[in-house]
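Example record

The entry below shows one chain as it appears in the dataset: sequence first, then structure tokens.
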Amino acid sequence: MRIFYIAICLLFVYLSSAQNSYKDSIESYFKEYVKEHEVVSGKDKEFISFFPVNEKYRMTCRFERTMNSPWFRMESSGPIKKNYRVYGIIHFTINDTAVTLNIYQSQDLMTTKEYKDHLFIPFTDATSGEETYESGRYIDLETRDIINENVLIDFNKAYNPYCAYVSGKYNCPIPPAENRLTVAIRAGERSFGKHH
């Protein structure tokens, strides 16, 4: 009985430390993100804010590859529109709702050595325009992140495009209609506080 009790205690400690280490790693990620931000500088960095870390928004999604998708010009916040294609679709359940999001690949970035494997997910959700930037947020990933038709997506790392901080300077891709979710994803970066 004593051994069983010790085993239960050790399991509890392990689970607690696993949760803490995940939370700590995301909070460290937030600090680094703010520190290295290329658009927001100085005291304005105090206005960058995030939802509390929530591990339920880190999930393994089923990945469906989209072969021979046509290139199209994705709408943007500025006059320059760039070519993207749907690389694949992810399927997952959030807040008891089954949803899908398209993963996009940039034609321009494919020609660069550094970003040739880069993919991204632009999306809006029920928080957009209220708690988060109205034109949506982004998640970055690489082709190597997709393993055996699954991909780990962490909405705690969802971030704002540069247009969330400065108007009229950047051409930020606007999430296509297929990536506008009706569920609320209260994870990742919130609206830039200086604009409140």
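Notes for this example: The chain has a mean pLDDT of 90. The chain is about 15% helix and 25% strand.
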